[in-house]
Amino acid sequence: MQAAAVTLSLQKIRAAGIAEGSAKAMKQPANMEQNHPLFRQVYDYMVNRIVREEWKVHDKLPSIRMLAEELQVHRLTVFKAYRELASSGRVYVKDKSGYYVAPAGMLREEPTAEAAAGVPAYSLTNPMSDIQRMPVQYQFSQALIDPGLLPNLFLSDYVKKVFDLYPKVMGTYSSVQGDPELRSVLSRHYQEHYKLQLSPAELLITSGAQQAINLIAGLVLGPMDYVLVERPTYSVALDIFRRAGARLLPVTITPEGYDLEAVEELMRTCRPRMFYINPTHHNPTGHTVPARQRKLLVELAERYRCLLVEDDPFRDIYFGGVPPAPFFAYDTEGWVIYISSFSKYVAPGLRICAVACRHPFMERLITAKSMADNGSPLLNQKIFLHYYTSPRLQQHLGKLRIALQVHKEIMEEELAGSGWEWTAPEGGLNLWIKLPESVSAAALLQRSMEQSISFVPGELCDPLGEMTSWLRLSYSFASENVLREGMRKLMQLAREL
Ligand SMILES: Cc1ncc(COP(=O)(O)O)c(C=O)c1O
């Protein structure tokens, strides 16, 4: 089936007079994938039509499904070609609408071999975002909460209230560092709930944790710098560090935390600039680094002058006990930066995140933020502030924890007896699954996308790109019925592989 599709597609492409090399490849299908992968041929085919102006600037391009049918290749192949076209600036994406031909000014030069060699981890792709942009019926790839479980109605109440209280809110910038009222509420909250000693001047409001990671990476990392990362980890952070040209040093995370001797050895020999950690209900594994390791790791960071960047968006999403205090609570010398996003359990659309760090790094961060966007929207900060200080927040969190635990248990129930393995998480949004050796997550994804089921293949979360029989399934987005149905379909597909 697959071989036939490959041959047919090559005939089509050749008939279009494009891929000269493909004719040779047709006689040697085994080498073809190696030397000139199919998606690359589709890419070339598209570039050629764009260059010949059969598709003009700002023309809408055929959908993935239509092009896959036309060329008789798999949709994922076309998807991959589109991804490359987008990253080379040939096309651009409009959300929920499709792909369009980009104007010449968007074209990025291909990196030369020399440049690529000088920046070993060079990359301009974000495969996670590509998977998540595909509209699917069974959504298990987004570590996001079902919008039906979020406090949308209450937030819209506050929208009206905020306009009454601050009639000029749209007519003004926020301060670059963030609304002082919000920072002062958050610093009190962090003291009471997370044991963090903080002043409002030590907080910066960013547009999501992703912006925070980006700003920090921009300040701290240069080409060839080492950065320690958990293995596995949040794949977008890996893409950001790669784009900065940094070299990734993986540190395995287990239910017991890290191997601190190995971490110390890496810090001693490689002198990494920073260690990016997500130590509480970690994405993707759900593990939480135990309290005893937190203090020790902060001491190591201080000794080896390695910044700890603690990304903590899942702290309040727990099913059992309250997790241990953040690493930031143990920091005495300013070697920890604490990122606390509210995208997960309040409102991803508001893009509110607080970054805590000490002087003098805060000044540098504020400058970077001013260059990025001159401050996050004041309206969003005020809406968030009024919700955050109302008793509704804690009520919402109480109900949300129960709902998410039910989701998690449904997923686990459906997977029982599958032969798939995972460690039951105590919080967070995902199951990190080990498939039987015979099943490849990439092959399963290819099949599952055809059935409108998405998940994150483990290799995207692996700094070494090797965890091919792992996958991340998010139980937080799909409704209970969709979750059951989708899991059954997914396991059936795995059995057929
Ligand atoms: C560990 C981690 N950090 C950061 C983010 C991005 O958060 P935000 O939406 O606040 O940018 C995510 C989103 O999934 C995440 O899992």
From TrEMBL:
Molecular-function GO terms, alphabetical: DNA binding; DNA-binding transcription factor activity; pyridoxal phosphate binding; transaminase activity
Keywords: Aminotransferase, DNA-binding, Pyridoxal phosphate, Transcription, Transcription regulation, Transferase
Protein name: DNA-binding transcriptional regulator, MocR family, contains an aminotransferase domain
InterPro entries assigned: Aminotransferase_I/II_large, HTH_trans_reg/aminotransferase, PyrdxlP-dep_Trfase, PyrdxlP-dep_Trfase_major, PyrdxlP-dep_Trfase_small, Tscrpt_reg_HTH_GntR, WH-like_DNA-bd_sf, WH_DNA-bd_sf
Names of the cofactor(s): pyridoxal 5'-phosphate
Organism field: Paenibacillus typhae
Segments forming domain HTH gntR-type: 36-104
Claim: Transferase is one of the keywords in the record: yes
Similarity comment: In the C-terminal section; belongs to the class-I pyridoxal-phosphate-dependent aminotransferase family.
Pfam families xref list: Aminotran_1_2, GntR
